[in-house]
Amino acid sequence: MTDRIATTTWTGALPSGSGTVTLESSKAAQFAVSWPARAEAPDGLTSPEELIAAAHSSCYSMQLSAILTQAGTPPERIETNAKVSFGQRGEGFAITGILLTVRASVPGIELTDFNAAAEQAKQICPVSAALTGTEITLDAALI
C-alpha cells in the first residue's frame, strides 16, 4: 500500500480567509486556496475542485493507457481534460458533475475498441471510483 499526504493550513473566516495546500509526499507544489477562488473567479488561486480535476485527468489518462497497452494497442498520446462543476445544490454547495474530455492517438485501434477502453477506464480509474455518486460524463475521440 502507498499513502500520499497533502496538508492544508487555513486562516480566518470562510469568506475572507485563505489557505495553503502543500503536497507533502512529493514536495512538488504548494497551492493557495480561498473561498472566492472556489465559488467565483480563481484570480490566481486554486480550489479543491481544481485539484480533483487534476487528480482525475491524470488518473484517467494512466488507466486508459494501461488498458490500451494490455490490449496490444499502446497509445502515442492521450490528452484528458477534467471539468469539475461546483455549485449550489439544495441548501449547500456540492460537486454537481464531472466531464472528462479525452483525445487520443492510438495507432491500429478500431473506434469501437477505443470507445470500450475509454468507458472501462472511466469505470475503474481509482479517482472515478472514489467519486462514486458523482455523475461523470465522458467525451472520448481518436485524433
Automatic annotation (TrEMBL):
Transmembrane segments: none annotated. It comes from the Bacteria. It holds the Pfam family OsmC. Signal peptide: none annotated. This is OsmC family peroxiredoxin.
